[in-house]
Specification:
Layout: H1 3-16, E1 31-34, E2 45-49, E3 53-59, E4 72-79, H2 81-84, E5 89-95, E6 107-116, E7 132-138, E8 143-149, E9 159-164, E10 175-183, E11 193-206, E12 219-223, E13 227-231, E14 241-245, E15 259-267, E16 275-282, H3 293-296, E17 300-307, E18 313-320, E19 358-366, E20 371-377, E21 382-386, E22 392-396, H4 399-406, E23 410-417, E24 427-436, E25 442-444, E26 455-459, E27 465-468, E28 475-480, E29 487-491, E30 503-504, E31 511-513, E32 516-521, E33 533-537
Antiparallel strand pairs: 1-11, 2-5, 3-4, 4-11, 5-10, 6-9, 6-11, 7-8, 7-10, 12-28, 13-24, 13-27, 14-23, 14-26, 15-20, 15-24, 16-17, 16-23, 17-18, 18-19, 20-21, 21-22, 24-25, 28-32, 29-30, 29-33, 31-32
Length: 543
């Protein structure tokens, strides 16, 4: 696509955004999801997931309004961090209406009453009963959370909770369940013991009919950047977006020469603190859906690559020894030094003796985040990391630790983590992943679709791992939120009737990020690659 064609498309989108039809929507009424008056109806709230033992029952002795003829939902959770580790959690769901999907765009708030028993176990040293996440489930079983409730220890009266419905949720017209859950915490602060609380008067509060409707969405097109786009579209600040080696054939231990794991970054967010990662994970048969091996797996070597506001960056290479569902042994985690007597931040070189328990082995700065970052093992134990500007740092593992941890099958992962909520929705572009010296060399520059089957997606949101190949995928079609019920369409011309020539654009693989939805348009999908127009339209709903 030439520049003039791209310019025409951009102008067409801006003009046609105002053409989207906005039908009148009847005013909604509040929905009482449950006030738990009927003991039999409590069975509608039940366990969804989590290994912590969960009990849901009617309690006639408790009611937020003091009504002796009513009651509340009593939730009892038996946490055990030693027994359940990372699955020391609970999750419950309750269908909003018995046989209907709700259009949440007509509702402003989710409200309910909450009370904790004084005997409830606390969350580590936080001084609270933990982070109770509350939200809704969609018709496709995915979830969205409206907020987190933290109740201070000692607050044992009824409290009224008000959470705002996120109107930017693209699945807001597909609400089915009221959903609440809680993870107990990790190895250092996870709960063991009983937690008991009550929930009452769960309601969806409608948007008043006097409130004006939200403005229609605005459509734009943006050029797509060639390479593997790693977009943090999972929604969580620690959601990993990675690709990994399809087979565990990439250990450096026992190699006849140097083994290098290299990643080339072509584009990066300007916002500081966004992280790129390389994970080297021993094992075989690991589920690709488990995209956080740095936490979940007992053994892992890894590189954290972080950017600064001025465009510079740094890389830390570290490992952990046999501690699942954690960042490593206390005092020997990824951000500690392998040898506590040695300093790595700003000082190169390894300490004389490693602890073998885990920690940082090498740390390097770079004047630029863009370019090739590499990890090279020159022996079973010695490692050198290299930054794009040529700076290096070296370290070493104890020989017995290396053989014990990494001397068998091993997967290599490459990806991104937003690290902060402000970075959710950002993304990096990788132009090359290369592994040399290992049993199965790999070199992928993402110039053809599909990419090398020696790599596979392992991401919290796989649709956010997107390959762009120049002329084949020239641009993103984007539109602002809220856009509940709107459909993207295209036409090669306007014609006399603005509706007649338009064709719906499939909304599979649509991403939600930074207050917009994003659809990567391939040249083959365009009705006319040299001249195309786009619009969003909201079809009228039959009365």
């Amino acid at each position: 696509m030439n520049a003039s064609a791209y310019s025409s498309l951009a102008k067409a989108c801006l003009v046609l955004a105002a053409a989207a039809a906005v039908p009148a929507i009847p005013a909604a009424e509040d929905i009482l999801i449950d006030n738990y008056t009927d003991p039999a109806a409590v069975a509608g709230t039940a366990r969804w997931w989590g290994n912590a033992v969960q009990t849901y029952e009617h309690d006639a002795t408790q009611d937020a309004d003091g009504d002796a003829a009513s009651g509340a939902l009593k939730v009892t959770v038996q946490y055990d961090i030693a027994a359940y580790a990372g699955e020391n959690q609970f999750s419950a769901r309750r269908q909003i209406l018995p046989s209907a999907v709700i259009d949440g765009s007509q509702y402003a708030r989710l409200e309910f009453d909450l009370k904790y028993a004084a005997s409830s176990v606390a969350q580590g040293t936080s001084g609270t009963y933990g982070n109770l996440e509350v939200g809704i489930g969609h018709n496709d079983w995915s979830q969205a959370y409206f907020g987190t409730v933290q109740t201070p220890v000692g607050q044992n009266d009824w409290q009224h909770i008000v959470l705002t419905v996120n109107q930017n949720n693209p699945k807001l017209n597909q609400l089915r369940d009221f959903h609440f859950k809680q993870w107990s915490g990790g190895a250092g602060d996870g709960m063991t013991g009983t937690q008991m609380f009550w929930i009452d008067n769960v309601k969806l509060i409608a948007i008043p009919s006097t409130e004006p409707p939200p403005p229609p969405p605005i459509v734009t097109v943006e050029p797509a950047k060639p390479g593997l786009n790693m977009i943090s579209s999972g929604g969580g600040q620690y959601d990993r977006q990675t690709v990994r080696s399809s087979l565990p054939e990439y250990t450096w231990v026992g190699a006849t020469g140097p083994v290098t794991y290299a990643l080339t970054i072509a584009d990066y967010p300007s916002q500081a603190g966004y992280q790129t990662v390389i994970y080297l994970v021993p094992g075989s048969g690991l589920d690709a859906g488990m995209n956080y091996p740095d936490w979940a797996q007992a053994k892992c070597a890894l590189a954290f690559i972080n950017n600064n506001a001025d465009g510079s960056g740094n890389m830390r290479f570290a490992y952990k020894n046999d501690v699942a569902n954690s960042n490593g042994y206390a005092g020997h985690g990824y951000w500690d030094n392998d040898n506590p007597a040695d300093l790595y931040d700003g000082i190169t070189g390894a300490g004389p003796v490693g602890t073998g328990k885990g920690g940082t082995l090498a740390y390097v700065n770079s004047t630029t985040i863009r370019g090739t970052w590499s990890i090279t093992f020159t022996s079973n134990t010695n490692v050198t990391i290299t930054a794009p500007d040529g700076q290096t740092s070296s370290g070493s593992l104890p020989n017995e630790t290396t053989a014990q941890l990494f001397g068998g099958p091993l997967y290599a992962y490459f990806g991104t983590v937003p690290q902060t909520t402000d970075n959710v929705g950002l993304g990096a572009v990788f132009s090359r992943i290369k592994i040399t010296g290992a049993g199965a060399p790999l070199d992928e520059d993402f110039s053809t679709i599909p990419f090398n089957p020696a790599l596979e997606k392992s991401a919290s949101n796989a649709s956010g791992v997107v390959q762009v190949t120049g002329p084949d995928t020239p641009f993103w079609l984007t539109w602002t939120l809220p856009a509940v019920g709107y459909l993207p369409r295209q036409s090669p011309s306007l014609g006399e009737d603005v509706l007649s020539p338009w064709t719906n654009i499939p909304t599979d693989n649509v991403l939600t990020a930074r207050g917009r939805q994003w659809k990567l348009m391939e040249t083959a999908q365009l009705l006319d690659p040299s001249r195309n127009f786009f619009q969003l339209i909201k079809p009228a709903v039959a009365p």
